[in-house]
Design goal:
Largest sheet: 7 strands, mixed
InterPro entries: Calcineurin-like_PHP, LpxH-like, Metallo-depent_PP-like
Organism: Phragmitibacter flavus
Keywords: Cell inner membrane, Cell membrane, Manganese, Membrane, Metal-binding
Shape: globular
Number of strands: 16
CATH class: Alpha Beta
Number of helices: 9
Protein name: UDP-2,3-diacylglucosamine diphosphatase
Distance between the termini: 28 Å
Structural class: alpha/beta
CATH architecture: 4-Layer Sandwich
Strand order of the largest sheet: 6-7-5-4-2-13-14
CATH superfamily: Metallo-dependent phosphatases
GO cellular component, one term: membrane
């Protein structure tokens, strides 16, 4: 049975709208059919680097933005957008508050377990902060790898095999990448200490995680290019890293499109009905003296 899952807070990062391989359709499906008091978009939601080069903006990407705006308007969800490195164009506007939307660099999330620092995390990537040209070159290589991976996984799917991630394989094999992740987590632990926080929630490295790093609770929301994961705070205030497939199972919903295909533009019946409600003018009751009747077709 389909149901809308309820959370206290949702933390999502690295959607990379503008990259053809991003899973915007699945991310919209997840946000649309989850209720929360606060939605934290933790950086790299829009990939301005890709859009400046040869990026592609699809209907799915527009639908994701509309989904977030709909959460604010219809459900009163507080939305906090944290700047990432791929959407660093926002830097010139920070901080900015508009009704229940706030755009900033970092956010302190209060929890019964202590305060959690929420930050994208690119500030602790030496290449990103000090050699942007090299980071952009790396992004080009990563996007090329994704395109190749997509073709390869289409072939694997045709043969009935599970998908394979070149990027994850490279991270596991290259000692420098593994070492970088370890140092990255340690640096974020130190940042949490400096902010007097007991935990930290970040993104950036596209590696979902829920673990203790020293005495700091380290959470990484992953991404919506490969892992399709988010950090959720349940109503009992516990945290969990949840992936899209598990969320679909709990919500009783079919995955949106093919898990290997990021360009599914079909809206489901619920999407279509809600779009109709937004565009169809409200029918006013006809006045007949002291009473009013409404004819429903």
């Amino acid at each position: 049975m389909k149901r809308k899952l309820r959370f206290k807070t949702i933390f999502i990062s690295d959607v990379h709208l503008g990259v053809p391989e991003c899973k915007a359709s699945q991310a919209s499906h997840f946000i649309r059919n989850s209720s929360c008091e606060k939605l934290v978009l933790n950086g790299d939601i829009i990939d301005a680097w890709a859009l400046k080069r040869d990026g592609k903006w699809t209907k799915d990407h527009t639908h994701f933005v509309r989904t977030v705006l709909r959460k604010m308007e219809k459900e009163g969800t507080e939305v906090i957008y944290l700047r990432g490195n791929h959407d660093d164009v926002l830097e010139r506007f920070l901080p900015l508050s508009l009704d229940n939307l706030k755009i900033t660099d970092e956010h302190i999330h209060q929890s019964p377990h202590g305060n959690y620092l929420v930050v994208h995390g690119d500030g602790f990537d030496h290449v990103t902060t000090n050699h942007k040209w090299m980071a952009e070159l790396g992004a080009i290589g990563y996007n090329s790898l994704l395109k190749l991976n997509r073709i390869y996984n289409a072939y694997r799917s045709w043969r009935g095999k599970a998908p394979f991630s070149f990027a994850k394989w490279v991270k596991a094999k290259v000692k420098g990448a593994v070492s970088f992740v370890g140092k990255y987590e340690e640096q974020l632990q130190n940042l949490a200490h400096s902010k007097k926080c007991d935990g930290i929630i970040c993104g950036h490295i596209h590696t979902p995680a829920d673990k203790q790093v020293g005495d700091v609770h380290y959470l990484n929301s992953g991404d919506w290019v490969e892992s399709m994961t988010a950090v959720v705070e349940h109503l009992d205030r516990s945290f969990e890293v949840i992936n899209y497939e598990e969320w679909c199972r709990r919500a009783g919903r079919q995955p949106k499109g093919l898990l290997l295909d990021a360009e599914s533009t079909d809206l489901d019946a619920e999407d279509a009905l809600e779009d109709l409600e937004e565009t169809e003018p409200k029918r006013q009751p006809e006045s007949t003296g002291s009473s009013a009747t409404v004819t429903v077709p």
